[in-house]
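Exercise 7 asks you to align residues with C-alpha cells for two separate proteins.
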Amino acid sequence: MVKSAITIKDVAREANVSVATVSRALNGHDNVAAPVRKLVLEVASRLRYTPHAAARSLSSRTTQTVGVVLPDLYGEFFSELMRGIDGVASAHRRHLLVSSYHGDQQQQGSVLQAMRGRVDGLLVLSPYAGDSDFLVDNLPPALPTVLINTPLAEAQYPVFSIDDHAGALSMTRYLLETGHRRIAFIAGPVHNHDAQQRLLGFREAMAAFDGEVEAIELPGNFDEASGHQAGLALLAAPALPDAVFAANDMMALGCLYAFSQAGVNVPAQVALAGFDDIPLARFVHPALTTMQVSIAELGERAMLHLVQMIDSGQAQTVPAVTLVPTLVVRDSTAVCDLP
C-alpha cells in the first residue's frame, strides 16, 4: 500500500493551528509569533512535509524561479557568470531554470517562448550583433527581464555589459607602449558583438599610434581550438610577431599551447595577452597578461537588479550599466627591446 503524501492540513492538525498559520510560518511572513513559527517548523520537519511547488505557484502567482538563457554553457566565462548569478539567487531563495540555445537564433526563440509561465523573470545573454529585433519580438511580454552583454538599439530593458572596446584599446596601447610593433590579433566570432568591439578597439589603437606598426589579424571562435589554430598559423609564417593579443583568454591559452609545443618561449620570443581574466589565466605558465573582467560581478549585479524588479513589481529600468575591464600584467608579456 502506497503511503499518501503529507499535506499542509496534516501539519496544521498536528500543530493545532490553522492551515493559513502554517502557510504564513513556512513562507517566512512576519505576522506569526516566534513560538508558533518554531512549533510549525518542528512539526513540518518531523512529518517530512514538502510544499508542493505547483500549488504554491498557483496560490502566490509566483514560481520563485528565474530563467537564465545563455548562448552556451561551455567555458570558464559562462561558469563564472553562473557563479555570480547563482550566489544572488541562493541568497534570495530563488531557483534557476538554465537553458542554452547554442548560438542558434531559432532555438533562442523557442527557449524564450518555453520560459512563459515557468519563471518570474528572465536573465538573457544574447551577444549576437543584429539580433535585437528578433530578441525583443520573442521575449515574453510584461515579464521582468534583464539583459547581459546584449546590444540593443533602444533602451527597452536594463542591460548590464562589459566595455569591450575600451578594454581592447587599453591592452593594445599597453603592448605598443612596451615596445611591441608587430602585433597579431586573434579575433572572436564574426557576428558576436563583444568580438566586434574588441576587434574595433585593437584596430583603433593600432591606427592611432604615432609610429610604424604592423597589425596581423587572424580568425577565431572564442575557444581553445581556434586559438591553437591561430598559433599554428603564426608559427608557419616567415617570422613571428612581437606580440599576440587574443580576444579572449581561452584562445590565448590555445595559442600558448601551440607555441609551447613548438618550443617558442613566451614572452622572450613573443609576448601573449588575452581578455576576460578567467581563473585559469593566473595558473598557467607563464601566467597570462589579460584584461580583467569581473565576470561573476556582472552576473551578480544583473541578477540582483532582476530580483529587485520582481519583488517591487516595477520595471526599474536603468541606464545601461557598463563594467570597464582592468589591465592585469603578468609574466606572459615583457618589454620589447626597440631597435
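Second protein for Exercise 7:
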Amino acid sequence: MERASPEGLGGPGRVAAVGEGVGADELALAARNHGLPLEALRYEVTPAGLHYVLVHYDIPAADADGWRLRVGGRVRTAVEWGADELRARPAVTRRVTMECAGNGRARLSPRPVSQPWLVEAVGTADWTGVALGGLLAEAGVEPDAVEAVFTGADHGFERGVEQDYRRSLPLPIDADVLIAYEMNGLPLPPQHGYPLRLVVPGWYGMAHVKWLTDITLVDVPFAGFQQSVAYRFRQSPDEAGEPVTLIEPRALMAPPGFPDFMTRTRVVGPGPVPLMGRAWSGYGPVVRVEFSADAGLTWVDAEVAAAGGRCAWQAWHGVWEATAGAHTLVVRATDTEGRRQPLEQRWNRGGFGNNAVQRVAVVCAPGG
C-alpha cells in the first residue's frame, strides 16, 4: 500500500544549505540507527549487537508462531509457509557483508539530509535460512514474470508517502539469495528482521528486506517508492536517475593506537605500528589494498587475505613505520573488476554509494 500522507508530514528529499549543521531530526535518526565501532573490524564475523542497523520506520511486533510468508502473483500456485515450516527445510548458511547504501553520506558536501552515516554502516554475519530460488520453483514462476517484489511488515511515512517497505529484484533470482531466520547461529534479533528477512549477497542493504511477509511475482517492473524514488543516483531532483544496486569497493582500517574522546584522533608511539582492517566489494573479490601515511600522496601495498566467500569481506594487514608528528592514514581497495575507491567524494542527492577513502587522523608522540 502506498498513498499520500496527511498534510504537513514528509516532503521531498533535500540537501543541507551551506553551513547548515546536522539537525535534530538527523540526530534522532542517528540515535535509532547505529554503525559498527571500527575497532570491531577485528572480528571476522560481526557480533549481532555491533552489526550496523538501519530501520526506516518502527521495528514491528513479531510473533514467529503466527508469522506467514506468502508467495503469489505470477506463479502457478500461490503458497505460504510459517516460520517453523521454513526452518524444517534444508538450511543454507552464507557469510555476507552488508553495507548501507548511504554509508559515507555525512561526509558529502553539500550534505544530503538523512541518516548521517560516516563510514561505519557495515557488518558481516553468517545468515542461515532457505534458498529463495527453491521456494519460487515450488510455487512455479510464470514465463511472463520479470521481478519479485518483497514486502516487509514495517510501515510508515516517507517523503509524503504512506507505505509498507517494499523492494524488488529482477528474475531469475541469484542462487545465493536467502530467506534468513538466523544470524550468527541464533534467531534473528528484532532489529535485524525477526523472524524472517531477505539476504541478497553483494547488494547494498536497502535490498535486504526485513520482517518479510510477502513475495509477489510481477510481469512489469516494480515502480514503488523505495524502488523508483528513494534509492536512485541523481544529481538533480527532476531526473529519473540510475538504481542503487551492488556495493562499491571499500576498505576500512581499525584505527591504531588509542583515541581522544571527542575528536577520535589516534595516538601512537614511534616505530612499527601494525595496521589491519577489512575490504569488500559487491562486484567481486578485493585483489589489492593500499594504505598511505601522508594523506594519499604515497601508497604501500598491504597483504590481503583470500576471499572467504563470494560476498564476505576480506582481512588486510600492513605495518606503518610511524615517525613523530601528525599524520593522516588513508586506505583504499581495488576489486577484481578493476573498480578502485576514489580519493574524493562522488556526490549525488541521496548520498548513496559514497565510497571515498577513509581518513584517520593520528598523532605519533613518544610514549604514545
